[in-house]
Amino acid sequence: MNNVQExxxxxxxxxxxxxxxxxxxxxxxxxxxxxxxxxxxxxxGTTAVVCLFVLEASGLVIYTANAGDSRATVGQNRVAxxxxxxxxxxxxxxxxxxxxxxxxxxxxxxxxPPEEEWGGPARVWIDANMTLPGLAMARSIxxxxxxxxxxxPDPEVTKYAVQPGDEFLVMASDGVWEFIDSPExxxxxxxxxxxSATEACTRLIETAAAKWRQEExxxxxxxxxxxxxxxxxxxxxxAAA
Length: 241
Hints:
Layout: H1 2-10, H2 18-35, E1 45-46, E2 48-56, E3 59-67, E4 71-76, E5 85-88, H3 98-106, E6 110-112, E7 123-125, E8 133-135, E9 141-142, E10 156-161, E11 166-172, H4 174-177, H5 182-193, H6 197-216, E12 225-229, H7 230-240
Antiparallel strand pairs: 1-9, 2-3, 3-10, 4-5, 4-11, 6-7, 7-8, 11-12
Helix pairs in contact: 1-2, 5-6
């Protein structure tokens, strides 16, 4: 988390080519992690979704870099008495996504399909016997054991021009999205975001935790979220310009 921000701020093409900067930084952080003897990242790693706000002549633009199955989505088009819509800024990179699976299998990896009986996800393995590690994403920072079989740190980067009616951004780790889809997520946030982004974030996390208890008992995946009011970002950037 800290290294991505620091390297991104220092990248020479951050302003001229944000897409290149974000892609370089994800790979640089993964490489630095591999070289750090104090951290064992062979069987541990992280998803990463990063949003970069740029104030262009046409208005506010969001560059989103994503590796793995964290997600960023925009809550939009609030109409009294109706559900808000969501617009995803990133796409979850699951092992059985066709393009991801093809790359992994070409590199010698194996992908097991989702477990129908108990609802487990598709996973990446280093061999057909499914020995290790059973990673449930196709891209990540760390997880270096499966970097030999097609799992990569390179993010997919999108560019999105903020539109009239776009109210807020929700960024969250995969544990939030396991039992909550994007439309439900933005509608959980919507009643609270105007008064308090912190309260909106708390409600989203508490709902995700409750759903994990209902579905999985004592076990739950990582639940991390950030909620951002887009009008505040635009106002702050214009004031600083």
